[in-house]
Amino acid sequence: MPLHVFYDFDEPAREDALVTERDAMGGELYDRFETLREMLAWGALLRFRVNKMPQKCEGILSSDDPDLLSHLDPLMSSLGFIKPIPTGPRCGLYERHDAVMICKRTPREELLGHQAFRLGGRDAGVLRKILGRMATESSLEVEVDEWTPALR
Prior knowledge:
The protein has three helices and eight strands, in the order βββαβαβββαβ. The protein has 152 residues and is α+β, with helices and mostly antiparallel strands. It has a single domain, classed as TATA-Binding Protein, CATH 3.30.310. The protein is globular.
């Protein structure tokens, strides 16, 4: 059974509130997103774009700067990606016709220079070009943990 979603109105963020989850019968709360808008957009891009792409990968982006997205945003824009909604420093959403990338980090945890990502595209070549440009044209370090389907 899926967890229930709750707002934490004691933690406002960008005209919205922190989103947490827990079992309906109580128990520990799990922080998920800084805003409901981010949660809905991230979930929609994952379900209807990333997961529908023929080639996918996931991994970790790292930077010496805790505000990692300030380095990623201009790079993704230069690669032709748009941001479907404005987001904060813990959620990045980027899409273009042949690829989509989502990344996030847990709210309330210390803002460190690491962020998990998922990237989907029409083929491995498109994804490799995007990842290569991230690694060479920014201060970001890119670590891919898994390719789906696996590369040969």
